[in-house]
Amino acid sequence: MSKKFYLTTPLYYVNGMPHVGHVYTTVIADAIARYKRLCGLKVCALTGTDEHGLKIERAAREQEMSPQELTDKYAGEFKKTWTTLGIEFDEFIRTTEARHSVAVGEIAKRIKESGFIYLGEYSGNYCVSCEAYVPEGEKSCPDCGRATEFMTEESYFFKLSLFQEKLLSFYESNPTFVMPQTRMNEITSFVKGGLRDISISRTSFSWGIPIPDDEKHIYYVWFDALTGYLSGIGFGSDESKFNKAWPADVQLIGKDILRFHAVYWPAFLMAAGLEPPRHILVNGWWTVNGEKMSKSRGNFIGADELAEKLPADYIRYFLLREIPIGGDGDFSYEAFVKRVNSDLANDIGNLASRTLKMIQNYFDGEIPEPGASEGGDGELISFSKETVELYRKNFDNYEISKGLENVWELISATNRYLVANEPWKLARDQGKKERLATVLYNAAETIRILAAMLSPIIPDGAVSILRQLGVKTDLESIGLSSLLWGSLKVGSKIGEVEPVYPRLDLGDFGMESPAKAEAKVERKPASIKESPLISIEDFAKVEMRVGKIVKAEKVPKSSKLLRLIVDLGDEKRQVVAGIGEAYEPKTLKGRLVAVVTNLKPAKLMGVESNGMVVAASDEGNPVLVTFNEDVTLGARLR
Ligand code: MSP
To answer: Does the predicted TM-score (pTM) go above 0.85?
Structure first.
């Protein structure tokens, strides 16, 4: 039976919409889960929502809803976001679920029975308006600025002070418990500084799980929420399921919640007689345009905004490639567009398309049989094997961005291999057919391995490339064995070749890219009244006819231009049209268009154009003129 792998994201607060920071931790988790599945492990990935506490109670009041209505609304938004981003979890836990209260009761009971919970008094400066204690040493409330009152209330405490030695020796025997290392050091020195007992109940508000037998108390929201990692896999309700999954293999968190996860959490677990998790993986924070993200600064990037504008692969790739896990990063659409255009559209996208197109054109879409190896072949093959090893080592250590660097080195090497071997020249010489077959086989096989390695990160594009190569894309087929050289079947048919990663333009994000701004000025329609008048003879000089597009494809290296073959009744013509950003080539086949047929021929990006398809220019975006009734091809427009 395959080994289990249990991983978790934090349980997100549901007082507002998910944003890019939440997306980040979740995307890391999904990438790790997919990688571990590729490695053949039986993965359980858990996420969920943290729905109790004063923060939620207050947000509900502000939004004039009951706390339950508020949490239902935003828990739904989180779920929706993960689905849109292609993120699938095995378990989703909401802390307002009944199975969760049962688990909280159970862990509290175990800790109490072991003698680590006592009733005491909690004192501190309290903000009546905010109904919260302010941090020690503060005289006024950091939230609202009002003066505070010194207050004392009854509270249940957890004897954290007894766990200093236990925790330190646990850290010593598990030096990678917290990753990266700097965070482990930070926690070790914090614990060495001494630990005080912590309050685990509240009486000043009521949105929480009541403590049985003393119902004026509710559990402190962190004690409640951390237990979600257990309740979501059956603790207190399905022990056999729980025992199969626990302890967690890796728990992902942001740097702001490290102390709760690396100190309190293992102590709670030890006190309850449960094993601590194996690793806590700590990620850094994203700023947006150089500043902390906030609604008031106007730089809040909601997950819904991202998901609406961008394919999931682009978001996943940017977040995972741009910074190493642990580091902080800055999000801007400028950096985003630059990164994905260069790495996804230019590098992997183009490499796959040009190789596949050559197989299509020179070998009728069949994977060619390689002949004898020559100079560069062996190097490419061994570099591909080395890359797989480095990729695995880095992914096993959760160094995803480094692993991606390895993958991109192999992409560059494959591109260099094609440039050095010039298959497009080999194709012109019948005597070099075998060499051409070898070069294209090697390139295609490397691309297959690249796509398999990338499948945990950019699953949609990876699957599309694999499908185009004609190989299986189900989970079983993309396993560790798919990373081995040589499994691409000679003679197998490739699928339909289509672009994987279209380029992005800053204009897509409501920002003016220099090119689009110019285009708009140029194409702004003159007011009808200002147009100079012409005679009917002038108009008659322009010959326009009805045509049918019988073939459409992108002009290589251009995002705008499409090469069209148009049937005009008694002849077929090649026309180049600047409609590539508005129309997918495959949607154009069979479409009736108006064609200017007496234009002087012109060359666009090296491709001859014998005419022009007529389109309206709608703020610079072309909209094709078409015919809805039956009409004879070649009929003249007058
Ligand atoms: N509810 C607690 C977690 C309880 S876990 C038992 C919580 N929720 S949160 O919604 O505020 O934050 C969840 C995660 O999002 C944290 O890991 C936090 O670090 C992360 N991020 C929030 N803003 C972020 C950025 N701007 N950048 C990166 N991650 C960020 O804390």
So the answer is: no
